[in-house]
Structures are given as structure tokens and as C-alpha cells.
Design goal:
The complex is a heterodimer of chains A (332) and B (296). Chain A is α/β, with parallel strands linked by helices and 332 residues long. Chain A folds into 2 domains: 5-92 and 172-316, P-loop containing nucleotide triphosphate hydrolases (Rossmann fold, 3-Layer(aba) Sandwich); 93-171, no CATH class. Helices cover 32% and strands 21% of the residues of chain A. Chain A contains 12 helices and 12 strands. Chain A has helices at 19-23, 57-65, 87-90, 110-120, 126-139, 156-169, 186-203, 214-220, 238-243, 248-258, 293-296, 299-302, and strands at residues 5-15, 30-41, 46-50, 72-77, 80-81, 93-96, 174-178, 206-211, 223-228, 231-237, 308-311, 314-316. In chain A, the strands form 2 sheets. Chain A has an 8-stranded mixed sheet with strand order 6-7-8-3-9-10-12-11, sandwiched between helices. In chain A, strand 4 (72-77) and strand 5 form a beta hairpin. In chain A, helix 4 (110-120) packs across helix 5 (126-139), helix 4 (110-120) packs parallel to helix 6 (156-169) and helix 5 packs across helix 6. The longest helix of chain A has 18 residues, at 186-203. Chain A is globular. Chain B has one domain: MetI-like (MetI-like fold). In chain B, 67% of the residues lie in helices and 3% in strands. Chain B is built from 11 helices and 4 strands, in the order αββαααββααααααα. In chain B, helix 9 packs antiparallel against helix 10. The longest helix of chain B has 36 residues, at 68-103. Classes of the chains: A alpha/beta (332), B mainly alpha (296). Chains A and B meet through helix 4 of A and helix 6 of B. The complex binds adenosine-5'-diphosphate (ADP) and magnesium ion. Residues 57-58, 98, 178-179 of chain A line the site of magnesium ion.
């Protein structure tokens, strides 16, 4: 069975080389924002994507939504490459932007914002459109009064709901949610998470839920991918990942939220900033911050570990675990 | 003080607009009718004097005996129609070109348009308009079935002069907007590019270009009159402020050199009023500029 959406060893490199440098084959420097990610999402599944800021979550999300073209590799929706898919199917893949205020035109009110996708779905009569606007607003928990508001009159949570209503108007099958709760306070966050998970279950919409907030991901996701500097380092069902984290980076992240005070400084197990993706460390990208490097040995900086299965649905990229097979993804 | 100046500018502009619109109703004579001071003599008639046939000419006549006041009224109308429509057309053209090139930044279309604009910008001031009007002539051009009026020729020439800078401004304010998430969101919904530019992008990028075009109104009056003064205005007997000014040279024959002040003062007043009004509009629309000015 093919997955609803799948990424096959996708890479996205950003180059800051000028055309002259490129002409002379002087590379300039290159950011390996996403470096070989393979990910399958089934119908109705909610996959969480966690990692520190700058590790490439947004870039991966944009690749899956078709807003970015991969430097290498392919993204397929229902077995067909996103690059050459018909417009009708293309609309079924949508994205909620990281900053909802930015993603809504400041000049349009909610009615105008929602009308376009509604018309696009074939509703043309004015009464039809109005009814649809009201049902969409209701679906995201807003009253019909909001139809005449502008984005500057809305709070962070309301903005996110309007943005969600706009994507739902297109009856999507897959939505990338890029940190939808990063700009709202605690109780609004819970409401939004509940809303997303209810809508996903109700309509069978698959979600890629991006966040640097592990507790949010734990609440909503069926399966979790942990990303570090452009690579997925661990992937497991949500419960499994929280009960038995296997990658040292995941362990460190979990330690950090185990603190009772959420504002407390992270434990020493994850010290420092992630290295720049412009000059990723040789070998395992996590080794300069890893607590297990001494235990494992020099192999950590000699070559990069492959993402390999520990059990059928638990993958990890670390030399702590014996290498099982030759994986084509192994080098770097 | 600044605000009072703006009000003064606005009042003067309104008065001139009134003259341009309703002028024909209260112009005392036809602008082409020739009078004589005494039978047989064709010389400029002095201010407040009476013609051989008994008409009183409030501001005298030009060298061909035509009533100065009537010519000023009709001339104001011509000058204002030419300058306002050239700024309006240039602004519309700049909004279309600037938003398209801004949205399609780096594309072949963008490259071609911007290089053309660079080429047009190498002509200083109204030199380009002078060259264009001189080349096209002031008689009107035949384009297929339609023949343009001489006024339209001048408007086209001025549009060529004003559009490049306005387009650059519009493109400059479009580029940062084009990278914002609401544009990405529109693309993701499958919105066609023309619709994105016309309904999502361009309406959010207009402030700068509108500010600039209002400051161009004074320049447009000055340029129109300048072309007229250089003999590149509308053909005779159509009056135009610059043309009227040029013809006052002939008063020197009659030792009435101060006649030059009548059209000269009118042009200066109009340019002054448009300039202060343009500055005022800019201060309202662009508060940052006001702060900048206050600092100096
Ligand atoms: N358009 C771009 N051009 C150049 N570099 C980019 C671009 N987008 C993202 N990057 C870089 O790619 C890396 C990953 O960014 P991003 O995907 O936004 O991370 P995250 O969402 O996890 O914070 C960052 O180092 C960022 O600077
Ligand atoms: Mg991000």
C-alpha cells in the first residue's frame, strides 16, 4: 500500500553563492537545511516533527506541502510526484503557516479570505458562500460574527483558527501545521491542539504537526520524528518514544521537559547551541553535544550513523545500537 | 506653519481646478478672437484698456491681440489636463509594471522591463519629453484609425518621463511584500498569478508610489509649461500657460515687459501649490518621512 504522502530521501540545500561564484564553480557556502529525509504518512495519521529551532522543520514542511522544491529526492502524494500533479489534487495538500498573522492578507476581512477557496471548490451563489463561511467558522470554533473582522482585530488563537478555516475550505487530505501553537498562551494552545486533533479524526485528514514543544506533540501525535540538523535521528510511535527514547538527543530533549518548572534552564544533558547547518560536524552531527560519545568511541566523528530499525516501527540513528544491515542512507 | 502652507496649497489647487473645469463659462471672450487697440494696428493691448471696437480687456492682450484673461483661463485648463492626466497614466502604468516585475523578480520579464527603464532614466529631467515631442511633432500622430490630439502627444511624452521612477518605487515596495506568507498562502490555494498580483499584492504596496506621484504633480505642471515655452506645446491657437509665457517676449516691442509676470506668476503659483500639497499628502501618508524631516 502506498502512503498518502511520502518523502523519499529529500534534500534541500540553500546556497548563498552568487551567479559568478557558481559560474566559476566556487561553491560559496551551502546550508543543508534538510539532508536526506525519508518519511511516510498514512491517511488520517498525525505525525509530530520536533527539533530545535533552525534544524530544518519548516523547510521539511514546505517540501511536503510543495512550497519548496527538493534539491534531491522526491515528494509523492498518493504515489504521484508533487512537482507534476494536477491542480485539483494539488489543493488537497495544504499548510498552516508558522505565523498566522503573516499568512492572512491585512487588507481582507475574514469573509473575503474564506470566499476565494470556497469559490474554488465550486460554490458560486452568494447564499451558498455565506452558508459555507458560517459552517467553516463554526467548524473551527468561531461565531459567524468573525466574518467581518480583519486580521488586526484578531488574537493569535483566532488568527490560527481563521487560517485553519481557510485550508479546510479546500477539503484537504493532508495539512502541514508549522508550529501552530508557538504564538499563543497555554489554554489557547490546548484548545487549538484539541481542535486540530478532532478535525483530523473527524475528516480523516493527515497532519504533519511541527513543533519544538514536546508536550504539544505528545498530546496530538500518533507517531513522532525527532529532527537534528537536517536529519531525522529518531522515529517512533508517540507512546514508545516517550517511554523508551533511544537517541541521546531525544533523551536530552525529554530530560529538559521533565523539569517541573517549564521555565527552568535546560539540564546539562543538552548544553550549548546546535552547530550551524552551514558547517555541520563531521561524522554523527550530534556528537559534539552527545553524552555517550566517549562510551561509543571514535566512530562517532569518523562517519555518520544510518537510520535503522530497532523494532518494526522504531527507527534510530545512533552507534549506541548495533548496525543491522547495509543501508543506502548510511553515508552522511 | 507647515500645515497652514498645505491648506493654502490645497485652496490654490482647488481654485485652479475650478478655473479649469468651469473656466469656459466665465471666460469673457473666445481665446482665439483678435482685438485691435486702434484700427489697422496689431500690437499688444495694455492691461485695463479698451479696444478699437469697445471691449475692455482686463489683462490686456497677447501680441496677436487675443484677450489675455481668456487665454489664461483656457491655458490653465490645457496645462492642468495635460499634467494631471500624464501623472495619472504614469502612476497606473507604474503600478501595473512595478507590481508585475516585483512579483516576478529575477524573471526574464523583470530583466527586460528594468533594463528599458534604466535606459529611459539616462535622460536627465524633461529632456526625454523634449526629444519625444520634437520627434513626434505637435500635430498629433496617426495610430491606425485614430489620430491623437497634440495634447495626447505631450501626455505620452510626459508619461515616458514619469513612469520609470514610479515603476522602480512600486517594484521596490512590491518585492518585500511578495515574499510574505499571505502570498505563499494564495499560491498554495492555487490562485492564478494575475489574481495574486491584482488583489493580494498590489493593494498592499501602493503607499510609496502614490506619495511619489502626488509630488510629481508640481513637476508635471512645470514640465508641461516648459515644453510649451520651448515651442513644443499644443498647436495654435490652443492656449497653454508655457506658450503664453513664451509669447510675452513680444511685449518688449511695446515696452510692456512686466506683462511677463501675468503668465509667469500663474505658473509659479500652480507649481508652488502642487508642491506644498504633495508634501502635505506625503506627510499624512508616510509619517516616518515627517519624523525624518523633523530631525534635520
Ligand atoms: N530561503 C532560505 N534561504 C537560505 N537559508 C534558509 C532558507 N530557509 C531556511 N534556511 C535555513 O535553513 C535552516 C533550517 O531552517 P528552518 O527550516 O526554518 O528551521 P526550523 O523551522 O526548524 O526552525 C536554517 O539554518 C535557516 O537559516
Ligand atoms: Mg520553523
Amino acid at each position: 500500500m502506498t502512503a498518502l504522502i511520502e518523502a523519499e530521501s529529500v534534500k534541500r540545500y540553500y546556497s548563498n553563492a552568487s551567479w559568478l561564484q557558481r559560474l566559476l564553480f566556487l561553491g560559496g557556502s551551502e546550508i543543508q537545511a534538510v539532508d536526506g529525509v525519508t518519511l511516510r504518512i498514512e491517511k488520517g495519521e498525525i505525525v509530530g516533527l520536533v527539533g530545535e529551532s533552525g534544524c530544518g522543520k519548516t523547510t521539511l514542511g514546505w517540501l511536503l506541502a510543495g512550497l519548496e522544491q527538493p534539491t534531491e529526492g522526491a515528494v509523492r502524494f498518493k504515489g504521484r510526484s508533487l512537482g507534476n500533479i494536477d491542480a485539483e489534487t494539488r489543493k488537497k495538500v495544504q499548510l498552516l503557516f508558522q505565523y498566522p498573522r503573516e499568512s492572512l492578507n491585512p487588507r481582507h476581512n475574514v469573509r473575503t479570505i474564506l470566499s476565494y477557496p470556497i469559490r474554488k471548490m465550486g460554490h458560486t451563489a452568494t447564499a451558498d458562500i455565506t452558508a459555507r463561511i458560517h459552517s467553516l467558522l463554526e467548524a473551527v470554533g468561531l461565531s459567524a460574527r468573525y466574518a467581518d473582522r480583519y486580521s488586526f482585530q484578531l488574537s493569535g488563537g483566532e488568527l490560527q483558527r481563521v487560517a485553519l478555516a481557510r485550508t479546510l475550505a479546500l477539503e484537504p487530505e493532508f495539512i502541514v501545521c508549522d508550529e501552530p501553537t508557538s504564538a499563543v498562551d497555554m489554554n489557547v494552545k490546548v484548545q487549538i491542539l484539541k481542535l486540530l486533533s478532532d478535525i483530523s479524526r473527524e475528516k480523516g485528514i493527515s497532519l504533519l504537526f511541527i513543533s519544538h514543544d514536546l508536550s504539544a506533540v505528545r498530546f496530538i501525535a500518533d507517531r513522532i520524528c525527532v529532527m537534528y540538523l537536517g536529519k531525522i535521528v529518531e522515529q517512533a510511535p508517540a507512546q514508545q518514544l516517550f517511554d523508551h527514547p533511544c537517541h541521546p538527543y531525544t533523551m536530552a530533549l525529554l530530560d529538559a521537559i521533565a523539569d517541573i518548572d517549564p521555565n527552568a534552564i535546560r539540564k546539562a544533558s543538552l548544553h550549548g547551541q546546535p552547530p550551524s547547518p552551514m558547517a555541520p560536524p563531521a561524522g554523527c552531527r550530534f556528537h559534539p553535544r552527545c553524552a555517550y560519545t566517549e562510551q561509543v568511541g571514535t566512530i562517532c566523528w569518523e562517519r555518520g550513523p544510518a537510520l535503522q530499525p530497532l523494532s518494526t516501527d522504531h527507527l534510530v540513528r545512533c552507534f549506541l545500537y548495533p548496525e543491522v544491515s547495509q543501508d543506502p542512507d548510511r553515508k552522511q | 506653519m507647515g500645515d497652514k502652507l498645505v491648506v493654502l496649497g490645497a485652496v490654490i489647487v482647488l481654485v485652479f481646478l475650478g478655473i479649469a473645469i468651469f473656466g469656459p463659462q466665465f471666460a469673457p471672450y473666445d481665446f482665439a478672437q483678435q482685438f485691435r487697440a486702434s484700427p489697422g494696428e496689431l500690437l499688444p493691448i495694455s492691461v485695463m484698456s479698451t479696444t478699437a471696437t469697445g471691449e475692455r480687456l482686463l489683462l490686456g492682450s497677447d501680441a496677436l491681440g487675443r484677450d489675455m484673461l481668456s487665454r489664461l483661463i483656457y491655458g490653465t485648463r490645457t496645462t492642468l489636463v495635460i499634467s494631471i492626466s500624464s501623472v495619472l497614466l504614469a502612476t497606473i502604468l507604474a503600478i501595473v509594471l512595478g507590481s508585475l516585475t516585483g512579483y516576478l523578480e529575477g524573471s526574464l520579464f523583470d530583466e527586460i522591463v528594468m533594463r528599458l527603464i534604466d535606459a529611459l532614466l539616462t535622460f536627465p529631467g524633461i529632456l526625454l519629453a523634449v526629444i519625444l515631442v520634437a520627434a513626434w511633432g505637435t500635430q498629433g500622430i496617426e495610430i491606425g484609425p485614430v489620430t491623437t490630439t497634440p495634447e495626447m502627444t505631450i501626455v505620452f511624452a510626459l508619461v515616458f518621463t514619469f513612469t520609470p521612477r514610479l515603476t522602480r518605487t512600486m517594484r521596490g515596495s512590491t518585492i518585500p511584500q511578495a515574499h510574505r506568507a499571505y502570498i505563499k498562502a494564495a499560491q498554495l490555494m492555487g490562485m492564478p498569478a494575475w489574481r495574486i498580483v491584482a488583489f493580494e499584492l498590489a493593494p498592499n504596496c501602493l503607499t510609496a508610489v502614490i506619495i511619489q506621484s502626488t509630488t510629481y504633480l508640481g513637476l508635471a505642471v512645470f514640465s508641461t509649461a516648459g515644453l510649451g515655452f520651448l515651442g513644443l506645446g499644443p498647436a495654435e491657437p490652443q492656449p497653454e500657460l508655457g506658450k503664453i509665457l513664451a509669447r510675452t517676449q513680444e511685449y518688449f516691442l511695446n515696452r510692456q515687459f512686466w506683462h511677463i509676470f501675468i503668465p509667469g506668476f500663474t505658473i509659479s503659483l500652480l507649481v508652488f501649490a502642487f508642491s506644498v500639497l504633495g508634501d502635505g499628502i506625503r506627510n499624512v501618508l508616510d509619517p516616518e518621512y515627517r519624523f525624518e524631516k523633523a530631525d534635520v
